[in-house]
Amino acid sequence: MNFISAKGSVDDVSILHVFNLLGYIIVLFHLIFTDPSTYDFPVILWWWKNVCPHDDTPTLHYINCGGGSMCLASSERYHLDDPRTKAIIFYGSSVYPDDLPLPRKVDHLWNLIHEESPMNNYMLSHAAFVELFNFTATFRRESDYPLTSQNIYSLNYLTDRKPVSTEDKNRKIREQGYAPVLYIQSHSNVASDRDTYVQQLMKYVAVDSYGKCLHNKDLPESMRTAEDSFESEEFLDFIAHYKFHIAFENAICRDYMTEKLMRALHVGSIPIYLGSPVVQDWMPNNNSVIVAQDFESPEDLANYIHFLNENDKKYEEFLKHKLRGGITNSFLVNHLRSREWQSHPSGSPESGDVNMFLGFECYVCKQIHVISRDRLLNSSFSRTANISHTGCPEPKKSTKSASNTKGDFYWTKVYRQQEDKAWSARRMVDSGGSNSSQFYRYHRTRSKTQQN
User: Fold this and answer.
1) Of 7, 105, 216, 281, which residue is the least packed, with the fewest Cβ within 10 Å?
2) What is the pLDDT of residues 82-120, one digit of tens each?
3) What local confidence, expressed as pLDDT, does residue 157 receive?
4) For 374-385, how does the pLDDT look when each residue is reduced to its tens digit (9 = 90+)?
């Protein structure tokens, strides 16, 4: 029986290392000096080029996602017919049933990234449309690559800025006529019906409203364009002097939370929040936000605001997250520590960061390679997204009194119309439709069938 000597084993290992190193050098040389369009790697196509995380050139971009997962990426649609193309990434706010890559190819993964408001595309709140996608990155924690914490930039963002003292805030109210509550909003007619709620709230508590919606007070002259620079130091200092900050989302959906909530936590103004029904899961502790849905009516909420406004110690309990050890939500801490991507108040990535778009692109690249290996092993692939990845409830009026008014709520109609479109799009794709520009033929057919 022949045995390899200890010395022979070391030599064999050394030779293997040399070959691996040579292979790496050859691959590196090839990547540096060869046109990426010649690489035999899977191609990922960004269907809406405005969110493609690469420069706007016709060149295929090489991406190395680690673990042997290498791909090419582009936003040029002529790559749709490239046999190397294995995945398409759609942007939720700009995916339309009359602009789909049909006929759908059996080896194309359809993937969705949707971090913006659900009201931008309520088709995505219906299973018929969502199930057309294979992998997702959305504001819902149930998605494959969750983006829920996109506006929770870091734990330091919540803690580092020292809040204005309660005494100084009270002085602003007493001596300069500040209202205890701040509202800055210029986007009206939204699915959450937030202005109706705020208008009712104003009957019972003073609110300074600086935006176009329910406007009753002008911003200082130097900040008239503040809505274009909400992260400027001057603006942050201004809103920090208010005791309460209305942070109402434009749509109600599980895990959909925006920067207006996080900004209030950042400056140390207590957020009065209307939005995700599970917002507390993502807060620094269990007493840092006032949730409007917890109150029977705007009047009940106003009574609680008055109580806190008149009791400094109770008020300051909502600011404990600013103190050392004040962040006690272990779920939030662990999530931010394990998150693969980063985000910043400016919206621009810092050097060395992986933003959510690059992160999801690599996630898709890795899935392509996993599926490719599985198919070599004769394993089939049938994985699709489900409604928990994007689904949101039907919009409704924000208060009981408003719900009793005559006529359907505009956004309720939109939601139901989008459901009809979702089913029509599903029918078009499943039936092997070859031209999505003819979508409205399928849509009219479905509408007529319903009427009959």
Assistant:
1) 7
2) 999 999 999 999 999 999 999 999 999 999 999 999 999
3) 96
4) 776 666 678 899
Look up residue 126 and give its amino acid.
H
